[in-house]
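Contributing new complexes? Match this layout with iron/sulfur cluster.
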Amino acid sequence: MTPEAPTDGSLQPSKAFAAVDAETRALLPPQDLALLFRLEKDFAFSFQQLRLFARWSLDCAAWGEPALRLGAESGIAASLLSQGQPRQKGERLFQALQAAYDALASKAKTYPAESPKETLPSHKFVEKELKGRIFRLCPAASEKAVCCNLKVLNIVDNCAMACSYCVLQNHYDEAVIAVPTNLKAKLAEVQLVPEKRYRIGTGEYSDSLLWGNKNDILRDLCDFALANPNAILELKTKSANIGWILENDIPANVCCTWSLNPQIIISNEEHKTASLDRRLDAARAVADKGVKVGFHFHPMFYFDGWEAEYQALIARVIATFRPEEVLWVSLGCITLLKGFAQDFRLKFRHSKLLQMETEITQDGKITYAFHVREKLYRNALQALEPWKGSVFQYLCMEHKPMWDAVMGFAYPNMAVFDDAFNDSAFAKLRSSPVA
Ligand code: SF4
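Output block (do not edit by hand):
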């Protein structure tokens, strides 16, 4: 099939050509591209239907699923034998394709043991001067969700780890990591209310530990924590870069937390992160130093073997850490911004991320269907049972119906959630000596 714009004889570019952008055309398997033009010519597919077919074809190629094209070809064969106008046949064919795509998307993903060969960008550092407010509410917080009132410091922009699901893939030039030169001065502007308690993260716009103490970031953050004992500072990471933490005095109100997933997910969707073994070894070394740790099973994936894999992962964490060392554990699922999907399709050609039965949340994001998330959470909470009452457990970015379903209750508002969270976390800090 020619990549030139074909015309219908009236010198108008065909709908099939116009429905897919140049990048998509370059990525589509040639057989799918040929089929696309046939769907317009013989089955009068509309512009929107052609566009959807192109997207579905890209997805199936990324998932390693040829079935949609084969299904289309057999659907075409059957349609050609049946009666009716091209548009009627096309409508039936489109419905069949949609059903086939939905079925492929809904099934649990099967990951290869060998990680896929994505083209990943290298990264470079630039220096930047922080401007404006760097202290704010968690960017994912929502009034429509049951949220914990985490505050964040926006310090480093971007991340080098290339997790396929990460929103930073969309927000920044992937290759450029902007590290501040004036953090100390900007932290001095952050005025916390002495009577209030805070939990403050730095891992929402980048990884908290990957850069180590570049430009004195960690030193400045530790000084900030020392000056604000009513705040717990959370350094969240998927790295094993703990050298600076081990070599320096860390205030008792600084904790290090790790996002964890089974190794098969790390290999396939968290491309440049530390392996599970290295993350857990790093967490153990930090806990041995007396620094509090925490774990985020977030985002959890629905894949072949998920049940046993998450149970084994959580059992390993429970066997490796004592409850008094662990400030909190969170559970969460993939949440994608609308509009993320098409960029993602063009970037990650071997990811199964979009192979999911989806639901749009009340705040307009794409996530797993309720019943899938519920299964994932129930399984994880069952595995976390030994820590019930001794390690604070919560759902992140979830809504009241899910809390009610799997936790048996829901905090009525952010302030109550925040209080319960802080009661648990600060009590643990008080019960241990300053590291
Ligand atoms: S529950 Fe999750 S999304 Fe909501 S404020 Fe806390 S960390 Fe942010």
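Reviewers usually confirm one structural detail per submission. For this one: The chain has two domains: 15-106, 124-430.
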